[in-house]
Records
---
Amino acid sequence: MKETFKGVAVETRPAPAPPAPAALAAKVRTLAPTMTRSMQRVAETVASDPAGCAALTVTGLAERTGTSEATVVRTSRLLGYPGYRDLRLALAALAAQQAAGGAPAVTADIAVDDSLVDVVAKLAQEEQQCLADTAAGLDVSQLEAAVAALSTARRIDVYGIGASSLVGQDLVQKLLRIGLIAHAHADPHLAVTNAVQMRTGDVAIAITHSGRTTDVIEPLRVAFDHGATTIAITGRPDGEIAAYADHILTTSTARESELRPAAMSSRTSQLLVVDCLFIGVAQRTYETAAPALSASYEALAHRHQP
Amino acid sequence: MKETFKGVAVETRPAPAPPAPAALAAKVRTLAPTMTRSMQRVAETVASDPAGCAALTVTGLAERTGTSEATVVRTSRLLGYPGYRDLRLALAALAAQQAAGGAPAVTADIAVDDSLVDVVAKLAQEEQQCLADTAAGLDVSQLEAAVAALSTARRIDVYGIGASSLVGQDLVQKLLRIGLIAHAHADPHLAVTNAVQMRTGDVAIAITHSGRTTDVIEPLRVAFDHGATTIAITGRPDGEIAAYADHILTTSTARESELRPAAMSSRTSQLLVVDCLFIGVAQRTYETAAPALSASYEALAHRHQP
DNA sequence: CTCACGCTTGAAAAGTAATTTCATCGCTCT
DNA sequence: AGAGCGATGAAATTACTTTTCAAGCGTGAG
């Protein structure tokens, strides 16, 4: 303790209460009347632009308020902090809270004239929502049954067209890595041709957002008729495809916008389902899956630069 | 600028992007592999207890991590701040945000004996986190530049291998739908062969999580040497690939677990970046993109059952 | 009206924290 | 084994913060 203010000693360690950042504005208002003119200037500046002030050093803030370093430190003390350093930390925290709390929670559609910053935020937000919806809407008993069928399958065929074909390939890539026999078919003719070979103990998976994609339903029907266990990953559990699916995994439909039609955004949801299938199967075949996984990554090692 | 790290000058003013506090944990994960042991200790400590660390001085944090002040400052620089002082401010901000948000949610790794219900919840949670991290860590100015290049490109080639090839195909499918000329290459030989044709006004995009996939770097280098504008979508912005990329879009690394290696989960982050690119380009070419988009959906109508 | 007292203020000194330098140490690759 | 390079921390330097102190300013009594 070295200085006095209004005759009262201003402690270096005002121990009583560690001041909460959120209460800062209130504290400024409370104490303003007791402050001297230049201290008021500092306090006001700090309260009105926490973020901006957090970026300044004592000297910077002194200049900005047209006062001196000493005054800034005095004000910090009065507000309950040991010194300016700590006030500054509190300001940064306050700014962050304001930014988080004041979060506009982007809900509007992506528009043509949105800035890229908005686009990034909105896309991320939409996809997060989509994931949450999918997880909430997924029927775990159906998933369980699908995983069980896959784990013991002799052979797995996956049908997907267009964007869904990529999802199918993703699933197949993963299943191959844990030693299962899986094929992805994007060509409807070849898909049907192969479906004819399917029989009991085999698993056929069809991926279609609309649930009405003929080119994908057809091979699933054929596999179904030949006795294979069939799984549908679709956004329309009541679609035509349901008739030929033993197990239905429902994906969720994201918000549509002109630049981002539903069919295009269904991907996220489908991929989550695919990952759930994969992890489920990997768990149930852990004895063989784990070594196969590590082997597949080691095999790729020399494909990377040192 | 005074010091060097891994042969690269570490700027006193790493101007490009002021790192957002929220992205800090993600950034730690992204950069951890490039760090030295003691820097990793500092980074980890900081990421796991932002609030506690915000209360410490350089010396304090150095002691707590069993390192030196110099190492703490070096780590701060690597994480994108001018020095420890600024990292400390960011930590205070982060701590405040966490306290406000409050929701720590499921953070445990996916284990072999998790029930499927847990698997679904954890996967969804991880992917959501990954999306948030990616959005927070994405450099919008780089994205802006990439979008501009794509919008006026004569021709677009996309290189991706393995899981990244699917992401590349997704991007190409979308670009084709709005009338751009785009090709995806998964075959490294064909990719290089095609890259030779690239010239000024063309755009080449390489997608690799590790940033070290030779088969993908090679075609990008060739395209770069032939004058094309090159874009890298990678989780390692400091990898070899950076040398041949005009614009770098950084993807975020999700938490790893045994059943779900980083390479496998990088997909989510990459797809978000791809979507941002697509929407950005669609906005800037709206006159042609909008009609092309609707036309492409009408064309598919008869492929669905009534 | 002015002078004296005491609070307010900022310049500069003193002190503390952050940054840079540099020598050493340890690891890897011959 | 040892050469070379990167990693590391102790110490020097620099930047920032805090304290001191003397001058300024206002007020109110004489």
Note: Strands of chain B lie at 3-5, 8-10, 156-160, 182-185, 203-208, 229-234, 247-250.
---
Amino acid sequence: MKYSRATDYALHTILFLARNGSEKKLGVQELAEKQNVSPTYLSKILNKLVKEGMIYSSPGVNGGYSLGPHWEEISFFDIIQAIEGKTSLFDCCLNSNPECSIKKVMLAAEKNMEEELRNKKISELV
Amino acid sequence: MKYSRATDYALHTILFLARNGSEKKLGVQELAEKQNVSPTYLSKILNKLVKEGMIYSSPGVNGGYSLGPHWEEISFFDIIQAIEGKTSLFDCCLNSNPECSIKKVMLAAEKNMEEELRNKKISELV
DNA sequence: GTCGGCCTACTCGGATATCAGCTGTCCGAGTTGCCCTGG
DNA sequence: CCAGGGCAACTCGGACAGCTGATATCCGAGTAGGCCGAC
């Protein structure tokens, strides 16, 4: 089990944008070069963030990506959830018993990590 | 990102063994039927636990799996690590910068979950 | 009766098949700013 | 000088390929207990 590289790219990209100034646009080319990814792939990842309203994208000449209006409130968890999806880490696929004690322990532990990620905002690192 | 089903099987199997009495053996057939898995696949999973010394396996007629001597100390984390491996959830593959602030946040959050899983022992659920 | 060999019920390990999801590429389409040309 | 068209630089979206890891399955090998027959 691992976080996907896409999550890594998304986190770093948002941090790049934040450090670059919240208003300025950056082309996907430039962002991709800094992370050694192909621009097309990075564009796919960033589109997920666009759909969540975290960042803007401007087409056309001199287009690019820039941060959304509430970027200072974006937490690590927001970004991760946008990329990885909203499914829980653990699913007890054995019996559909909602009282499964193993599931309870796992979900409690997951919540612990989630809380930490919810409280950490990208803006704290700028 | 998700925990593999193998982890789910491993956790439930150990709980089965614990509830069945720490000394008694259970065949992989029986364990597999309760979880709707193929016996051969479950056997592969359980072998990982055998190698970590958590459970014993007895070949031959009336063979099967039984708990190891220190089974009461086995934590959720031990089992998960035996199945999923010891790699960290997050790897900053961008620059090999050990000071990457994103990595630090992620690892801190991961530690939070890890601690919770370390402190939860299977024996608490029996 | 007892000793040894076979048989059966198990686990172990490697090789292999299958499948889903991640990663990445390619191409066509849409959009926007800029330049260039014709009046 | 100005308006309009075309071009170039971008992003967007879908289709598709490759690869890796999870999820199995199969088969041969090893092991232990029990049975059975020969002596």
Note: The CA atoms of residues 23 and 66 of chain B lie 6 Å apart.
